[in-house]
Design a protein that fits this description.
D-Maltodextrin-Binding Protein, domain 2; 2 domains; 349 residues; alpha/beta; 14 helices; five-stranded mixed β-sheet
Amino acid sequence: MNRAHLNRRQFCLALSAIAPATARAAQALRVLAWPGYADPDIVKTFEQRTRSRAEVTIVDSDVDLWQKISRNGAQDFDVFAVNTAELQRYIRQGLVVGIATPSMPHLARQLPRFRDLAAIPGLVHGGTAYAIPYTYAEMGLIYDRQQVGRAPDSIAALWDERYRGKVVAYNGGTHNFSLAAQLLGLKSPFRLDDESWPRAVDRLIALRRNAAGFYTQPDESVALFKRRHAALLFANYGTQQLQAIKAAGIDAGYAIPREGALAWLDCWAITRGARDPALATAWIDYLLESEPGQVLVTRQGLANTTSASTDYQAGANLTWLEPVESEERRNLLWGRIMSGDRASKVLAP
């Protein structure tokens, strides 16, 4: 196994953080997670095993995640889930610390493509691993088979006038500008140049007009899809949403557009302000066990990194997320678009 290693100082800090169970019980492990990543029964098992207490806070967007971790210099949380693209700015700002991988026996359970941390872009810097892969999915298109006769084969379906008022989209500037870039056929959906911004803004204004509504959390998307009798949904959470929509009684299908589906790999990272790094490491290692992994699959409709997934389309055209040219600008412009501004006002300095 080609595992990244900690430098001596970080490893010593991790070891010195190991405290008696009675001391751990006095303060909680503060977990920041996405929906479905830390269900109550999974948390309870961890607490019983470690004789600790865990407090879970749920986030609904990358912006929310960044605000919570960056506030107070990462002192408010101990461990959090983040995708590989977003992880890079947490590393740059010194908000995360290296993980003591030698103390994690369940890393050996991971599939080969996730076990070799150094082979995954952005996880290892200077020989130190800053995150551990947990779950992944592609952002495909979910469609109502009763309204859409044939599976949509292009992102352009989200803009199709036939589905005016029948599209449910994600409320986030970073991914939506990447979608617009794919629609425009730009070389990279993560690098918009000066000439591309006005064109992307025009496309997203058109998307706003075509949409029945926008969501941030998976359960919100299901309720919106059903309430508005929607025909199409951009699945920011991938097959997790497909499973939930089917459970709601909708005859839904799932498609990967020919332009390529944006795809994310979520990992667990430990904050600089973690009060007990060893306990945080134990949390990550525990989630690589069979039971938590199966919960991701059966309950959430997500893939885990320890067992092969029947939903993961290995041959599909996937575009793995990368850091974008400016999250701040994307989110600022998206906020103006959602406010109903015209293109000229959206792009105003």
